[in-house]
Amino acid sequence: MDVGFIGAGHIARALGQGWSRPGLEDAPGLRYFDVSRSAAEATAQAMGADVAPDLLGLVERSELVIVAVRPQQVQDVLTETAPLLGPRALVSVAAGVPLADLRAALPDGARVGRVMPNVAAALGLGVFLFVPGTLGSRAAAVEELFARAGEVVALDEGDFDAATAVAGCMPGVLAALVHDLARAGERRGLEPDAARRLAVAGAHGAAAVLARESDPEAVIAAAATPGGMTAAAIAALEERGVAEALAVAVAAAAERAKELTPPRRTR
Ligand SMILES: NC(=O)c1ccc[n+]([C@@H]2O[C@H](COP(=O)([O-])OP(=O)(O)OC[C@H]3O[C@@H](n4cnc5c(N)ncnc54)[C@H](OP(=O)(O)O)[C@@H]3O)[C@@H](O)[C@H]2O)c1
User: Which residue segments constitute the domains of the chain, with CATH numbers given?
Assistant: First the structure.
């Protein structure tokens, strides 16, 4: 499949890297367009993709157009893209821009869906929340494409913001927790570099075990020997209300998605 990115920032780069990993069979053709030509070139160069000279040059050579600009920029991009799109499929990865707003900015019958990726896509370990919208017969091919860079979870758009808060935000949230874990190690006398390496390697291994078991409670049961160190750590977390803090974090992210929704403009 030929994929064209409008916007060549962080997430467009992560997706492109995920789809150009060595050994991936039938890798999609990737092309980037960005208002900043140098941004498009830098991203394309990272994976040997093409740079389109302009929006028309991108859209006309794409089977799937991915809108990867910031939420406030989506409407302008769609206004420019609408007359060029034709029967091509379009997917927006922007937070907070609902399907209804995407459809309102595109011609009737446009094939459009939403995907919420995360940057782990670059390693083939992404989580992709997928709302097929009006993709129709293209939905299966789009789903198959994203599945090449991680796990696709199809869901109702009503669940999109909460699901994004749990999965889409995970790389940043986990990084913040690992950062604080390293700082806690420093406070107990570890050298900063050693604390960082231990926390990062610890999180990496722990995430792999979680992925294999697919059951956090089973991992806790296996790791937290009664009366042992892990059990003491978990009890301290519970005492300090970490579950409540995470619930507040998920709620804050989901609320933020609503605030990101730009006022709708129609054609
Ligand atoms: N970063 C993530 O981890 C992540 C995860 C999931 C979803 N998302 C979503 O992905 C979208 C992009 O996020 P990002 O972090 O990748 O943003 P970013 O790094 O700022 O990249 C967006 C790029 O699009 C360019 N752009 C702006 N208007 C354009 C236009 N009309 N035509 C072509 N290019 C244009 C921007 O240029 P200027 O900087 O010059 O404006 C910038 O280079 C957002 O809507 C976000 O909600 C991001």
Answer: 2-160 (3.40.50.720), 170-256 (1.10.3730.10)
76 lines ligand 1 (CB under 6 A): yes
Q: Quote the ligand 1 centre to 5 CA distance (angstroms).
A: 10
Mean pLDDT by 10 residues, the chain (267 residues): 97 97 93 98 96 97 98 96 97 95 95 96 96 96 97 94 91 95 98 98 96 95 95 97 96 89 69
The verdict on the CB of residue 95 being under 6 Å from ligand 1 is yes
State the DSSP string of the chain: -EEEEE--SHHHHHHHHHHT-TT-TTPPEEEEE-SSHHHHHHHHHTTT-EE-SSHHHHHTT-SEEEE-S-HHHHHHHHHHHHHHHTT-EEEE--TT--HHHHHHHS-TT-EEEEEE--GGGGGT-EEEEEE-TT-GGGHHHHHHHHHTTEEEEE--GGGHHHHIIIIITHHHHHHHHHHHHHHHHHHTT--HHHHHHHHHHHHHHHHHHHHHH--HHHHHHHH--TTSHHHHHHHHHHHTTHHHHHHHHHHHHHHHHHHH-PPP---
Q: Calculate how far, in angstroms, residue 43's C-alpha sits from the geometric centre of ligand 1.
A: 12
61 lines ligand 1 (CB under 6 A): no
pLDDT value at residue 258: 83
